[in-house]
Structures are given as structure tokens and as C-alpha cells.
Amino acid sequence: MTALRVCAVGAGYFAQFHFDAWRRIASTELCAVVDRDAQRAEATGAPAHATLAEAAEAVRPDIIDLIVQRKNKLLLQQSSTTTTTTPTPPANATVLA
What separation, in Å, do the N-terminal and C-terminal C-alpha atoms of the chain show? Predict the structure, then answer.
């Protein structure tokens, strides 16, 4: 069975618990982390990306885990509806909010 590819959005304090959980699930792979702070994203050990659109295009994740405050989830949603360069997630992608 192929591992489900997980893209995490957010690398703040609470994200460490998500990363740990994804790494303990044998059938998943943390394939990308998106954060406004590049150093925080890089510190996770997963491939770091500046934007969700960039990560989605590069790794085509099966799951997008939004690990951001509620107000930032709204900003992500608004930016994805106004940006024409945001790729469409794969049909089998699951967004956890």
C-alpha cells in the first residue's frame, strides 16, 4: 500500500503534536510543511514551502492538515478563491480543518 501524502500548513507550537502523530501512522508520509516563517518550516525536517499553492503543485498531497488559528484558516480559504494560480487538489485529497 502506498503511503498517504500529508501536507501540513502551519509550523507553530501546536504543529509539533500533529507532526508527531503523522509520523507515528505508518500509512502516511509528511511530504510538505507550509509556513510564513521559512526557518520554522525547514526545522520540521519535511520539505518546506512558502505557500500552499507551491506545496500542492510540488507534492500533490492526499491530505492537507491545516494547523493554524481559526482566523488564518479563513485567510487561507479567501486566498485560494481569489488566486488563479492555486492548483486544484487531487480528487482523492482530504482537507482536515
Answer: 25
Residues 48, 83: Cα–Cα separation, whole Å: 21
Considering 9-13, 81-85, 86-90, the range whose residues carry the highest mean pLDDT is: 9-13
**H helices present in the chain, as ranges:** 15-24, 38-42, 52-59, 70-82
Per the CB < 8 A criterion, the answer to whether 57 and 83 are in contact is no
- Packing angle of the helix pair 52-59, 70-82 (nearest 10 deg): 70
Q: Residue 20 carries which side chain, given as an amino acid letter?
A: D
SS3 74: helix
Please identify which residue in the block is written with the cell numbers 492548483.
87
Q: How many whole angstroms separate alpha carbon 56 and alpha carbon 78?
A: 17
DSSP 88: P
**Model pLDDT, residue 58:** 95
Q: Please state the pTM of the whole predicted model.
A: 0.73
